[in-house]
Amino acid sequence: MNTFKIIFFLMAALVVTGIDAQNDEKLTQDVEVIRAYTPTISDAFKLSELPLIKDSVTIESKFQYAIETKQLPTDFQIDPIKPATMLGEPLSRLYNSYAKIGFGNYVTPMAELYINNLRSKKYTWNAFLKHQSSFGTIKNEDQKKVYAGYVDDFVSLSGKKFIDKKTLYCNIDYRDNTTFFYGYNAQDTNITTPPTAKGDLKKQQFMLANALMGIKTNYTDKSHLNYDIFANYYYFQDFYKNMENHASLTANLSKYYNKELLGLDFSTHFNQKSFTDSTNALIKLNPWVSRVTDLWEVRIGLSAMIDIYWKEKFHFYPDVYLQYAVYKKLIIPYFGLKGYVEQNTYRNTGFENYFIAPGLDMINTNHRKVIYGGIKGTITSNTFYNVKAMYTELQNAGFYVNDTTMYNAQRLQNKFLVTTSNAQLVTIFGEASVRASEKLHFRLKGNYNHYIEIKNEDKAWHIPEYQGSVGASYNLQNKIYVSADVFVIGERYAKTYDFTQLVDGKRPVVAKKLNMVVDANIGVEYRYNKAFSLFLNFNNIANQKYYRWNNYQMQGFNFMGGLTYSF
């Protein structure tokens, strides 16, 4: 405020002085400023209003135009582009030959040779040869060493010819198996000097020559008839010149009618043996119809069979199968009802039990009623399971029993006969396969057998109550392959007699218990490259002294090592 007063008085003095100066230019006045001048500017205020023009005259614009089309000449040339060349992965090299040679304890040589053609769209053929033998001895229950050698040779030739949608195929097999009747009842004190040396043992040799030829179609559309027709013949002979000739013809036909698949299965089997005058023939005719959807699979048919053994017997069986996918492919329950006649041949019994009595003849087995049901599924693309329960009514079911006939005044009981009986059987079966990765694979399988009733026998002789296996394999860097398996065979019973007693003119039957078998095996293979590898297998690691058949002890711990080569 003081500053403002000073400026005001100064200005007033200047005005007065100016006026007086006009009147009297000689008038003078001195002003003394005691403070410096400080200029100031007051705040400015901006107008926020904008100018607005209001026009009452509205002019509407109208345009008229037209488009005149005119083609302009163009001259555009497209340069052709060369098609891209797709280079696929090179085909892996195939080897047309594979050889395997090994040797193990019990003086056991082994050799295999596999030969096949390379890639071809017109045909395939292959040949397989195998030899394995053993010349070792085992120690029986009475601690006597007995020769338990064998020789097994096998040759197979097969081929296929592809013509349009048809395939011609054929297969020729030859097998020669030699064993010795080295078993005897070690608990029978009447056997003073049982034969143990190779030269003293009776020999058995089975020879089989088999030929099969057929033709089948491979149509994928529903307008064609698909069929698979083949004929088979084999000649079987043992060391004692007992011969069997077998010929069969089989035809399986199917064709779609709308959404249903109609089929007809026909087969005839004729079997002739030199050691019996009986005629053994089997004729089967089975028409059926089925339908398959994403959820259901249904099959309904009727099977008619003629069993000719001394006289003709006609059998009719239902052929029913039903399955339903409850949840995709994870849970698939299924049910079935069927029946059939099983033709028992000398070849089948001989290769199942090498120690049967020469020239053994067996009546056919009638599976009068087979009812089964279960659940199967695929948990993942690498995991599969199947659990099944089955009830079977059997007529003339066969069981192996020791032959107690006197040989050289000795009851060796080293040969087997077959006893038959009607029976009812309940079977529970399960299996699973898990491929945890490309390198690790597990597998499991087992079944339980329970005979509800056996009319003519006390036990199901030599048939285990349960058996199963569990295994695993592992691939280490495509160099080392390891596999392990454990096989379990449950308790079995053998039919023996008490020769010290006589009841009603007969020797009392004694059920001899054969202990459970646990057979563990391990195999290791080292692949140096794709052509060469080394292997080593260990069998019966626990060195169990077990019996597959009564009086015939199997080999204990055994191993085999060797090499393989592809060329």
Terminal residue distance: 120 Å
Q: What's the count of strands? A: 28
Instruction: Give the DSSP E fraction (strand runs of 2 or more residues).
Output: over 45%
Helix segment tally = 2
Main β-sheet, in a few words?
22 strands, antiparallel, barrel
Round the mean pLDDT to the nearest integer and report it: 87
Radius of gyration, in angstroms, nearest whole number: 49 Å
SSE sequence, one letter per element: HEEEEEEEEEEEEEEEHEEEEEEEEEEEEE
CATH-level-2 architecture of the domain at 381-567: Beta Barrel
Helices and strands: which structural class? mainly beta
Helical coverage, percent range: under 10%
| Residue windows where pLDDT falls under 50 for at least 5 positions | 14-27
CATH classification class of the domain at 381-567: Mainly Beta
* Shape annotation: elongated
CATH topology of the domain at 381-567: Maltoporin, Chain A
* Fourth-level CATH superfamily of the domain at 381-567: TonB-dependent receptor, beta-barrel domain
Question: In words, what does this structure look like?
Answer:
By secondary structure, the protein is mostly beta strands. Among the domains are: about 1-35, no CATH class; about 380-565, TonB-dependent receptor, beta-barrel domain (Maltoporin, Chain A, Beta Barrel), CATH 2.40.170.20. Helix content is about 5%, strand content about 55%. The protein has two helices and 28 strands. It has helices spanning about 1-25, 345-350; strands spanning about 95-105, 110-115, 125-135, 135-140, 145, 150-165, 165-180, 205-215, 225-235, 245-255, 260-275, 280-290, 295-310, 310-325, 330-340, 365-380, 385-400, 415-435, 440-455, 465-475, 480-490, 490-495, 510-515, 515-525, 530-540, 545-550, 550-555, 560-565. The chain has a 22-stranded antiparallel β-barrel. A hairpin with a 7-residue loop joins strand 14 and strand 15. The longest helix is centred in the N-terminal third of the chain and has 22 residues, at about 1-25. The chain is elongated, with a radius of gyration of 49 Å. The model is unreliable at about 15-25 (pLDDT under 50).
